[in-house]
Amino acid sequence: MRHTKTLRAKLLKGAARVFTIAALLWAQGLSAQSIWEGGDVENGQGLFNANCASCHLVTDGVLAAPGLAGIADRWGSSDELLVQWIQNPQGAAATGDAYIKSLVERYVGTYGWMSAQAVSADDVRDIMAYVQNPPDVAVTASTDSGCINIDEMPMEEGSDSSTLWFIILLVMFLLIAMSASGVNRQLTNTLRERDGRAQLEDSSYLTRLSGWAWNNMVFVSILGVFVLAFGVVKGYQGLMGVGVYEGYLPEQPVKFIHSVHVCENEVDCKYCHHSAYESKHAGIPSTNVCMNCHKAVKEGSRYGEVEIGKIYAAIGFDPETGTYLDGEGNNGFSAPQSSFGGE
């Protein structure tokens, strides 16, 4: 009996060791999974559109930065450094990795530093899965994307007539109530005269109205609640409309075409209008946001270099050298200078 218990204990101990080793191997296998494998293509597409599409294409074309076609074959460093390069490019460069150094020398001078992206390693895996398996670009381009060109949308003139109708109905109700009160008074006096009783004392409409309201307290209360609720709703709508101007189309200093950026280049609206996350106003992006892309994209598809040149003049950027000017006309700066007053 004792021998049996000892044998059982050894078997249980051995099984526990096997399970522990298997769990460690499984965890190690997960951690060693390549950044290029096992990603979710659909989730990667959403992440790419939100974080990468404003500068990168999934083809080998150049938007505001090099295209990502064949990135799995071109990447010459570790998976960990790829994640760090996306999360913190300058931090990755500080590691001294030779391949990262070559990227900095090849691209940063032309395109500038890539913005740090708030994505996890799993997010990067999904993005890479999408980049390696993008949709058929030719088919996608030939079909209707359903994107609305807000620059050419006709302005709809609408008016809220609910308040007007409410006032009309309220006036009609008061007129009917006053007429009914007068008819009721006349009939009552006629009956009193027939019965030989004294007629009702003559009183003002206000006195009679207050008496009627007192005798019909339930109806008046319900009506009062309705009027109060209507007033609260209309007041709230009025306050929310303060500072909102539909159809306001001022002459802009730069002819910006939303359809080119949103429909053709698939730039997320909130990339430029980041204040829309927490405000009812979209806000106007600074020229620094424009320069994230237009430091490399120096010619537009509609107006060529004319409109983009206005941005350069406002921020003090020399497209020939890819550097910035200061207030005294000195060139060669890698970032906009606060002393530059614009043109």
Topology:
Elements: H1 2-31, H2 41-51, H3 71-74, H4 79-87, H5 89-93, H6 98-111, H7 121-132, H8 137-142, H9 162-195, H10 205-215, H11 217-240, H12 258-264, H13 269-272, H14 287-294, H15 306-315, E1 317-318, E2 323-324
Antiparallel strand pairs: 1-2
In short:
With 343 residues, this protein is mainly alpha-helical.
Structure characterization notes:
There is one protein chain. With 343 residues, this protein is mainly α. Among the domains are: 41-142, Cytochrome Bc1 Complex, Chain D, domain 2; 258-324, no CATH class. The chain has 15 helices and 2 strands. Strands 1-2 form a two-stranded antiparallel sheet. Strand 1 and strand 2 (323-324) form a beta hairpin. The radius of gyration is 36 Å and the shape is elongated.
CATH architecture of the domain at 41-142: Orthogonal Bundle
The main sheet orders its strands as 1-2
Q: Helical content, roughly?
A: 55-70%
The profile of the biggest β sheet is: 2 strands, antiparallel
Class derived from helix and strand content: mainly alpha
Q: Could you spell the SSE succession in H and E letters? A: HHHHHHHHHHHHHHHEE
Number of helices: 15
CATH topology category name of the domain at 41-142: Cytochrome Bc1 Complex, Chain D, domain 2
Mean pLDDT: 77
